[in-house]
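hey so u asked for the seq, here:
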Amino acid sequence: MRRLFAASAMALLLAAGAAQAQVDTAGVDAAVQRVLPEVVAWRRDFHQHPELGFAETRSAGVIADHLRSLGLEVRTGVGKTGVVGILRGARPGRTVALRADMDALPVQEATGLDFASSATGTYMGNTVPVAHACGHDMHMAMLMGATEVLAGMKDRIAGTVVFVFQPAEEGAPPGEPKGGAALMIAEGALNDPKPEAIFGLHVVPGRPGSVFYRPEGFMAASDRVDIRLKGKQTHGAWPWRGVDVIAVAGQVVETVNTLTARTVDPTTTPTVFTIATINAGVRYNIIPDSATLSGTLRTFDTAQRDALVARAETAIDHVAEAYGATAEFGVKQNAALVFNDPGLSAWLAPVLTEAAGEGNVNPATPPTTVAEVT
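ran it, structure tokens below
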């Protein structure tokens, strides 16, 4: 984590306009070293106390208290549990934002770590285990550390840095119309001051100390797909007396897989269309009258995505009609394409190399079909 944290602190300091003040890179590294034990402690604390989307009250409190202790302007409750901190440099300059996400996932942790989570939360009306399985505990801790480093160099910063701690990155919780980023933006998180650029990062398993990215499209746009099939209930011994939605569901999965594999050129734009849930029936010998399917669509090209959605809806209607069933098809975007500005990426490249070390930065990583959900 040290190298990655150092890279982020260095890059973000320069992005804030401090390059104009000829930043002492050795001084930045020394400041990172001083705060690193705190970053580790914060990360372990967050890891041990995870919270689901829009329920990150404890995490938000820890973050807000730290930002206030550094003398920042702090706004809480932005997008329910979001936190915004503002650091104004000693001299006028540009405004950038640094962002971290805060929410955990409804999964059981089985790592056996001393600081492993034993927390629970409420998800879809059920009590569930909760754990930081996606690295957001590290994101919060690293951004808190970067905040401390930058606050200690306020007199050398020309410009303003906005620190955004976002809730509900893993998608809008059931019953919520918007996820954390959309809600924070709607409530003015990026107003007064308005950032000209936003920097963020995401940890993943891999070689420690390495940094990778790509200009332009990097992380896929993500859509949630919901399909509801309506047939006619009948006894399992007399399938011809009803309309078998189980058979329809099987054909729908095959249709989706074939459409993706046979109508999209994988050499031009990566595309993934996955049906991940199928729910139907209550008894082994009764064919139910309805079935619901849900899945995810990951794309990098808007026109190609729209065309595939239209083809899928038409094809699924035809499949259902062939069996005498009906189909309802719905698509909701969870995340837009993560697009890295080419000019900004080129400007940042030598900074990342300086901070992470020669050979530790890959600026030409292939696009990934995982998404940064809003």
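The chain has a mean pLDDT of 92. Residues 25-48 form the longest helix (24 residues).
lmk if thats what u needed
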